[in-house]
Write a sequence for this structure.
């Protein structure tokens, strides 16, 4: 990949129907079905970019500078309004921004040791902030739901998560964070479902994914990605939370059943009476491969499909069945896909 096509990060929007591509040559937004470029801002407009976050499918995009040739500081979040064709909000912090998340009424920004929540879009101002464990990967997720506006991020204790309700719009008033002990080692990946009722977490070991009830904080399922340690890049719930997919540096996308867990594979040792955590684990019902050691995000598409977007510029679409079959339906190099100016 040429230097001007280096991808710094990828991220799906809230309904997984679009994704962002932050590059050394600016940024691009794509529609998933069909795969079409929707917006592109070049290096001369925005410089190199480390992160881009969409707000559903509207005209608002959050941008953070970074990469090899930045035009904007890495400690600043800029809100681009594509109708006005200009940046309309600028938020600056004392540390580099590690993540930005958008809701229709809030902007959430993570730096290495703190999470900030801002009122948005009218009278943009800070509502509250939370201290975190050192968080270099910018682990923070927020539900798009209006009924359960929960935010999840690492707690101070190793392997723990904080869960907080951010529904309020009054300054300095929020529910106290609830701490959930999720793993023994450092948290490496987290996810929240569309309804804000379930969480998923994985540690840096990367062998297990745990599913939690966001209200009771009880573990609902323990899913096994594999037996060898791996770096998890992404965990995503399906829209109705019936399934979950996960990607790692092993180059495999795993698909798990959450509603009907009998679909998940089990160890053959279980049938002959062996007991223990490994034997009792639930393994994915299906999987498919993408380029190994290539960072990749994954999400569910329509009609039992899973989409994988990789930093090598490739687009993968597979369709799976409850029986565990998984077949490729589409492959493309999204950086070469033409644009569609209707956004």
């Amino acid at each position: 990949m040429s230097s001007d096509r280096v991808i710094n990060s990828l991220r799906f929007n809230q309904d997984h129907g679009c994704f962002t591509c932050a590059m050394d040559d600016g940024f691009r937004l794509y529609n998933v079905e069909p795969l079409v470029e929707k917006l592109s801002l070049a290096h001369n407009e925005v410089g190199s970019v480390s992160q881009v976050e969409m707000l559903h499918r509207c005209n608002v995009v959050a941008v953070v500078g970074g990469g090899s040739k930045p035009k904007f500081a890495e400690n600043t979040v800029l809100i681009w309004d594509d109708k006005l064709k200009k940046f309309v909000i600028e938020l600056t912090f004392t540390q580099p921004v590690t993540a930005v998340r958008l809701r229709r009424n809030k902007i959430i920004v993570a730096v290495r040791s703190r999470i900030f929540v801002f009122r948005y879009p009218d009278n943009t101002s800070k509502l509250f902030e939370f201290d975190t464990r050192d968080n270099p990967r910018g682990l923070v997720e927020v539900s798009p739901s209006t009924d359960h506006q929960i935010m999840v991020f690492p707690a101070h204790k190793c392997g723990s998560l904080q869960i907080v309700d951010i529904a309020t719009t009054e300054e300095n008033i929020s529910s106290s964070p609830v701490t959930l002990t999720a793993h023994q080692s450092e948290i490496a990946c987290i996810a929240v479902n569309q309804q804000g009722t379930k969480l998923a977490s994985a540690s840096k070991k990367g062998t297990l994914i745990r599913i939690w009830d966001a209200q009771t904080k009880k573990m609902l399922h323990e899913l096994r990605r594999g037996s060898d340690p791996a770096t998890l890049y992404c965990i995503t719930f399906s829209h109705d939370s019936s399934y979950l997919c996960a990607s790692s540096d092993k180059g495999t996308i795993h698909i798990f059943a959450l509603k009907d867990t009998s679909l998940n594979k089990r160890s053959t040792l279980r049938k002959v009476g062996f007991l223990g955590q490994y034997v009792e684990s639930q393994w994915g019902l299906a999987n498919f491969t993408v380029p190994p050691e290539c960072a990749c995000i994954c999400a569910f598409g329509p009609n039992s499909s899973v989409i994988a977007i990789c930093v090598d510029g490739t687009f993968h679409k597979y369709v799976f069945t409850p029986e565990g079959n998984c077949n490729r339906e589409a492959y493309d190099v999204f950086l070469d896909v033409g644009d569609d100016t209707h956004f």
Observations:
- Residues 280 and 297 are 28 Å apart (CA to CA).
- The first helix runs from residue 43 to 46.
- The chain has two helices and 30 strands.
